[in-house]
């Protein structure tokens, strides 16, 4: 009976290692001649936009680059901060309230894409991302070299959430065949991180752009699926050497952020339940139900997968992976909380209902 558990754990950990070896990475000191528009949507980001904006202004290796910033109804003086830092070096746009059927971020990204003009690449960046000076050129070169239409270079995640945040990278390295995802037209094989996305503009428009995902709370994954449906290819990459993302500064922000979107990650309540039960059975339950030697083996395989992920994606290889069973249990609680709040109509983000 124990082999029924240890065999899939062994296979999944081996798959993590293979994916880590195959993971694409942008080059340092790359150059590109592509016409690029960097698109930065902002809503009440006065307190943290400065590092992001300064990193965009410091980009090198991409000579034909423009920066477009959209102030999406901020009430904290975000636009004033942008003007003080960048002056006329960025094109500052004023957002409008999202029309019926649109969520705030897809609408802001749509407006920015329309303002970008005639360019080759669209680079969407969140305000909590800080890029190294050669990040944009490196990502543009990797998109071209990989022959994909949409590239998601995943940044190194910092801030609150050492028990939970590393599960993002671990999940797709462990369960998603990266090269198969790139080759397959199946929309079920799609992943992306909206913190930093690089899109071929022509492919983006063929996919319908953010208008195609106007009501998606997970607009990044929705956009990846739309690109696949229109015949384009997508890819994930490790961007941890070139980008850092401080997603959350407090536990409350983290729980609110995960709660607003986890319900949409699984397709249905039953799908979520199946995934959560599987994760608990594989990575948490063995500690309670298996004989001692098998507990150690199951635990070690889970921890090893996390260590491989950390080494491949720039997160902490020690001691955080040692708490992997607790991380999985905490993730299960966040999923349950997300569905509970959605059922009660209490989901919101940045002052807007979800």
Could you characterize the architecture of this molecule?
The protein has 354 residues and is an alpha/beta fold. It folds into 2 domains: 2-20 and 251-349, no CATH class; 23-248, Spore Coat Polysaccharide Biosynthesis Protein SpsA, Chain A, CATH 3.90.550.10. It has helices at 2-22, 49-57, 78-86, 104-115, 135-146, 166-175, 178-183, 201-206, 219-229, 251-262, 269-283, 286-289, 292-313, 324-343; strands spanning 36-42, 65-71, 91-94, 121-125, 129-131, 150-154, 156-159, 196-200, 234-238, 243-248, 348-349, 352-353. Helix 10 (251-262) packs across helix 14 (324-343). The longest helix is centred in the last third of the chain and has 22 residues, at 292-313.
């Amino acid at each position: 009976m124990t082999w029924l558990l240890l065999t899939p754990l062994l296979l999944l950990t081996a798959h993590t290692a293979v994916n880590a070896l195959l993971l694409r990475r942008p080059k340092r000191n790359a150059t590109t001649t592509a016409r690029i528009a960097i698109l930065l949507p902002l809503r009440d980001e006065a307190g943290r936009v400065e590092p992001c904006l300064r990193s965009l202004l410091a980009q090198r290796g991409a000579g034909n680059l423009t920066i477009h910033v959209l102030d999406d109804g901020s009430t904290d003086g975000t636009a004033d901060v942008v003007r003080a830092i960048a002056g006329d070096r960025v094109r500052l746009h004023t957002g409008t309230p999202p029309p019926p059927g649109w969520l705030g971020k897809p609408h802001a990204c749509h407006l920015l894409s329309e303002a970008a003009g005639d360019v080759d690449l669209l680079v969407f960046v969140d305000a909590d991302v800080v890029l190294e000076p050669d990040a944009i050129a490196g990502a543009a070169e990797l998109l071209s070299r990989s022959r994909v239409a949409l590239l998601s270079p995943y940044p190194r995640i910092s801030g609150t959430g050492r028990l939970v945040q590393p599960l993002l990278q671990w999940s797709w390295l462990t369960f998603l065949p990266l090269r198969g995802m790139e080759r397959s037209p199946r929309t079920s094989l799609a992943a992306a991180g909206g913190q930093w996305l690089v899109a071929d503009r022509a492919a983006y428009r063929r996919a319908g752009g953010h208008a195609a995902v106007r009501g998606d709370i997970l607009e990044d994954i929705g956009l990846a699926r739309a690109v696949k449906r229109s015949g384009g290819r997508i890819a994930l990459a490790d961007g941890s050497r070139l980008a850092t993302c401080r997603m959350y500064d407090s536990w409350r922000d983290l729980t609110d952020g995960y709660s607003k979107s986890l319900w949409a990650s699984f397709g249905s309540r039953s799908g979520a339940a199946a995934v959560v039960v599987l994760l608990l059975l594989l990575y948490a339950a063995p500690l309670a139900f298996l004989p001692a030697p098998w507990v150690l083996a199951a635990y070690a395989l889970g921890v090893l997968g996390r260590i491989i992920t950390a080494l491949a994606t720039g997160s902490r290889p020690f001691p955080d992976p040692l708490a992997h069973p607790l991380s999985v249990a905490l993730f299960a609680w966040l999923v349950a909380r997300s569905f509970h709040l959605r059922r009660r109509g209490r989901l919101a983000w940045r002052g807007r209902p979800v």
